[in-house]
Amino acid sequence: MDARRRKLLVNLLQGGAFLGVAGVLPGHADGQRASQRGMSSEEATRQEGKHDDAASGYNAPPIQVDSIDAMQRLETARLADGQRVEVTGYYLTTQGLGGGSFQWAAHSRQPADGGLSIAADGASDEAEGRFVRRVGSTLTPAMFGAMGDGSDQYPALARLAKAATDRRLAVTFPAGDYATSGTGLAFSGIAVSGAGPAHTTLRYTGHELGSLVEIHDGASIEGMTLDGNVSADPGTWTPRNYDAFTGCLPLDLRGRDVAARDIVCRRSPVACLRVEARGFKLENVRTEHARGNFGDGIFIVDSHDGLVERCEARDFTRIGFVTDTYGESPAFMLSERIDFIDCLAEHGHHASVDYGDAEYNAGYWAENSHQVTFSRCRSRNTTHHGFVATTGREPTLGSGHFTLRDCLAEDTEVGYLLSDLHDVPVRHTVTHCQARGVNKGFCIEMTLDASRLDGQHLGTRLRGEKASGSSYALEGAGTIELARLEEVWQTFDATRQAHLGTTYASVVAAGGFKGRLHLRHFARQDTTPISIKLLGQSHLLAFSLADSHAELSHVPAESVELHDCHIEAGWIKAFDALEVAQCRLGDGTPRFDLFESTRRHRYHQCRFDFTPGGGQLYLHNVDKQNARRLVRFEGCHFRKDLARHGSMITLDAAPAVFHVAESNTLTFSDCRFDNTGARTDTPVVHTDQRPPQASLTGQDNRKNATIDALAAFAPATDFMAES
Questions:
Q1: Where is the signal peptide (predicted)?
Q2: Residue 446 belongs to a domain
Q3: Would you say residue 469 lies in a domain?
Q4: Among 242, 253, 541, 682, who pairs with 258 as Cys (CB 3.0-4.6 Å)?
């Protein structure tokens, strides 16, 4: 078009003349006009192309206006279909923001949304004609009139969310303070991004509960702060106000394949971030200031196949990170295949259970879940628990599985609570985990024989100032195998540990444990012995201890195996079999009770050294049946100052079996007896029983010259080797 004709067209538009133009805006003019004349769109295009280019709005020079309002006031009756309009800014006062390039679609009835499709001033919704924004693949809030200046921009943001989702266009929030009085900004199938949590804030200004931002199927969000506007904390927390908060949930992820990255979610009256999705990712997400009965950092419910990596939950009144199901969810529903990696939960407080309700405070809580892994995760400064992992609903294969690796729980009551629930067995695998600044390190509560916990390279640092404290607190049943354990007490009370009635020890079962317990290489940092107290209704199916220095204060089990241990003292009840091998027993008084069902009771290559403390081995037949009790000593070494401290072994029987023939029989083979003091007539074995109630047999044994008798009724020479 030459300059003369362009000037004529502009003069006509400015002067109010009407110019009828055949537009070719895709999807609008050509199709509609073709249908009106009975032509195909291709024929219409060819026909329209015969017009002089000077008559086309597409080729006419764009009209320049300074705001959307000014564009709406253009006399649309004089605009050619396809006429371009260049807008400097959405508002007159926001030059450079929200403007853009528009085209007039004279026959469009596309719903006006204030951003992509804008009606002329005063036009009804049914009237033809829209200013259609020319966009690429990304929208911004300013395109809909949301400037990020701190004023309420809910209507504009709601229109933005709908338009972006409907047209599958990404959304970018520039730096700014985007306030909204409403909730429910839902995005589906698109990417939503900001300029970074320190620069872009989307905050709620209302008080009704809802979800500020919803991310649905295939959508992602990153690079901003979402604020739920929770009401202020009370001056004093009470049962009346611990859950009396207003505000909204900052972020809600739902559906399939959703993600949140580099996000801060803060100030919520419930969870700061909720996930109900299959296939989700949370990366570098930080939650802060969650309040109320369900004040969680990140709440993952009825979800599958998720990754939570490098996320933080701080300042919450329930739990930092949760996987669970809703109570009303179908019975088959549970949360599974979820990994937490390099996450931090810190500063949990004011849980509802402290005000008469039911919710505890913890760093991490997995319930009604399966195949949940915590790797290199930390929980710090919570009221009740660091980590909780339990079943509740039955997975497809029938058993829930939880894995904890390289985790740390510190400054809480219980470091780890690991259990089964609602008759669903569980398998816990725990490696290289620590509990520090706790009263109880690992609470293991399994009710089912089929449940199992395997742990190794575990450490505890116990506070120790309370009447109750333990590295491992056991309850129920199941199988527990622990190896490479280290224990430190910040404050240690030896008197409490020595008292059998206290739950103050390395391993405690106060309410009763009836499963299998196997411990290996368990040590204290200060080299004092660990203590094991299995109290209440405890009756283990099997107990074993290896490579450890211990006091077995009370251990009742069907079978007991001790290998490569130093047992200073204890009370061991072996109902079926006792096997003690390569152990040192002494200093205190190890007591071993024999029962009617005890089939095997053997000490193999053990060292009984009672010289330091003057203790003794105490064997007690408590059975009320008439059956022979045979105790074997093979290749053992006994040392004690008999003159000063008395016999090395005390053989006793309960009143009901004291006079029963052969109720106690000891046999020694290849053993050595050393009296470290002066010669004495004190026997090695002290017993008030006499044959036939008690008897001693043996061969190939050795003694030093200061020992005269093994028992009052058994001269030592009868049992010694000829050499």
A1: none
A2: no
A3: no
A4: 253
Tokens of 43: 């024929």
- Only one residue has tokens 């620590």, namely 434
* Amino acid sitting at position 713: F
273: pLDDT confidence band, cut at 50, 70 and 90? very high
DSSP state of 701: B
Number of CB atoms found within 10 A of residue 326's CB? 11
Cα angle for residues 290, 292, 295 (degrees, 5° grid): 40
Q: Rounded to 10 degrees, what is the CA torsion of 350, 353, 355, 357?
A: 130
The whole-angstrom separation of Cα 443 and Cα 435 is 11
What are the φ/ψ torsions at residue 213 (nearest 5 degrees)?
-125, 135
Round to whole Å and give the CA distance between 723 and 719. Answer: 12
- Residues in CB range of 291: below 8 A, 6 or more apart: 230, 233, 245, 247, 268, 269, 317
pTM for this prediction: 0.88
Tell me the CA distances in angstroms from 296 to 94, 212, 325, 602, one per residue in order. Answer: 39, 16, 14, 55
Task: Tell me the per-residue pLDDT of 661-702, one tens digit each, with 9 for 90 and over.
Answer: 777 888 999 999 999 999 999 999 998 888 888 888 888 999
Residue 14 phi/psi, 5-degree rounding, is -70, -30
The single-letter code of the amino acid at 518 is H
Domain limits at 38? 20-134
Q: Which tokens is 159 given?
A: 């229109």
CA distances from 161 to 164, 262, 605, 705 (A): 5, 20, 78, 97
Q: 51 lies in a domain?
A: yes
Sole residue written with tokens 């528009």: 102
Instruction: Say what angle helices 29-37 and 41-48 make with each other, to 10 degrees.
Output: 100
As beta bridge partners, residue 685 has 649
Whether residue 268 lies inside any domain: the answer is no
SS3 143: helix
**Stretch 437-461: mean pLDDT, rounded?**
98
Omega within 30 of 0 (cis) for the link into 692: yes
Measured distance CA(351)–CA(46) in Å, rounded: 74
Residue 718 and residue 723: Cα distance in Å, rounded?
13
Cβ partners under 8 Å of residue 542, min gap 6? 516, 517, 518, 557, 558, 559, 560, 561
Angle at the Cα of 230 from the Cα atoms of 225 and 235, rounded to 5 degrees: 130
So what's the pLDDT on residue 628? 63
Distance in angstroms (rounded) separating the CA atoms of residues 378 and 399: 26
> What is the rounded distance in angstroms from the CA atom of residue 153 to the CA atom of residue 150?
8
